[in-house]
Amino acid sequence: MILDKNIIAGHNEKELAKHQQQFNFLSEQTGQAAAILEKLKAFQVAIPSWALGTGGTRFGRFAGAGEPATLEQKIEDVGLLHALNQSSGAISLHIPWDIPTNATAIKELAAQHGLQFDAMNSNTFQDQPNQAHSYKFGSLQHTDKAVRKQAIEHNIEVINHGVNLGSKSLTVWLSDGSSFPGQLNFRKAFQRTLESLQEIYAALPADWKIFVEYKAFEPNFYSMTVGDWGQSLLFANKLGDKAYTLVDLGHHLPNANIEQIVALLLNEGKLGGFHFNDSKYGDDDLTVGSINPYQLFLIFNELVEGLDAKGLNHATDLGWMIDASHNIKDPLEDLLQSVEAIQVAYAQSLLVDRAALEAAQGNNDVALAQEILQQAYRTDVRPLVAEARLQLGGALSPIKLFREGKVRAALIGERGEKSVATGL
Ligand code: AOS
Ligand code: ZN
Ligand code: ZN
């Protein structure tokens, strides 16, 4: 174990005095630290297996050093994150990148690190070696029934892997669509996709959910068959109670009001969960909270309001996942930043004076409503998030300890400089 309890405790000892001062100040200022701490401590964010290596772009990939080459090593990486922040207690796997050849052993290894298996992800956007049919023109939407069948069977295989690991959900992201006008009959493509999804849905265990992820563009550049939340919601509604829409923050057209989308999906009982990331232009390129933390806060503000209104559990009733990977940072540092950004937005949204906001809304007091939100957003809640980590046995300053503890160097020592992660 690269980071044992003593190393973390030693780090915390050095940081404690300064932390205590900041935390006490914040507690006094907000007067509700205890309640927020309990919620923060219960809140876990799943780490995607494919974000543990440096991501590439179509212009190339600059692999990091000591990346996890096997599923076991990916679990070890998430175990390190979880040891540092005590808030990354789950991993989301992608098949066929992460096929668990011995599910029992993999489950045991994950349990040793305190990890659970979050949503399983299927892959029908790439052709795999020895695959009979190509996904060049789509998978679940394909005009050829044999291609659709292959994609359906793959998804069912992913469910089966997930069952063996104790996962409870399947995320389906489709690259299906068209790149040129005239290429596709939209109505028929939708219908074929629906029928394929229905076959996958029929194979879902009773206590599973299926998340239908949407994306506005790329790799198809004229139409995407699940291109926005409306299309996803149509599929989810037609499929049934176990089907939900998944919101990836980077998958909207510019300036979309994501917080409003989220509020309405949640109200319909059809919000399944999130792929958190941030972007300046599109997709899931950047670290959560790195570009638009105010948007993230506004999303959490709707989530907390809606979950509470419906009597739902913040920690367990939605799927909280990260989906981001970029080229130039150490992926583990990047993920520590992402988890912290999510926790900060969550804590800020818990600070919002709900009663006052409701009153301001009722009185159409626009300026006051805005003041109430910004009062919460402009509060530096990082000491609260750090205190939650401390109470759970994590590190007060995870990235600092990651660096001082020379974690990457230790991983390179174990795996070698040239070890490269499978995946994107
Ligand atoms: C693709 O753009 C989607 O965000 C997927 O959720 C995810 O990134 C993919 O499944 C991993 O390759
Ligand atoms: Zn995604
Ligand atoms: Zn994406």
TrEMBL record:
<dbReference type="InterPro" id="IPR013022">
    <property type="entry name" value="Xyl_isomerase-like_TIM-brl"/>
</dbReference>
<dbReference type="Pfam" id="PF01261">
    <property type="entry name" value="AP_endonuc_2"/>
</dbReference>
<protein>
    <submittedName>
        <fullName>TIM barrel protein</fullName>
    </submittedName>
</protein>
<keyword id="KW-0464">Manganese</keyword>
<keyword id="KW-0413">Isomerase</keyword>
<dbReference type="InterPro" id="IPR050337">
    <property type="entry name" value="L-rhamnose_isomerase"/>
</dbReference>
<keyword id="KW-0479">Metal-binding</keyword>
<dbReference type="InterPro" id="IPR036237">
    <property type="entry name" value="Xyl_isomerase-like_sf"/>
</dbReference>
<feature type="domain" description="Xylose isomerase-like TIM barrel">
    <location>
        <begin position="100"/>
        <end position="285"/>
    </location>
</feature>
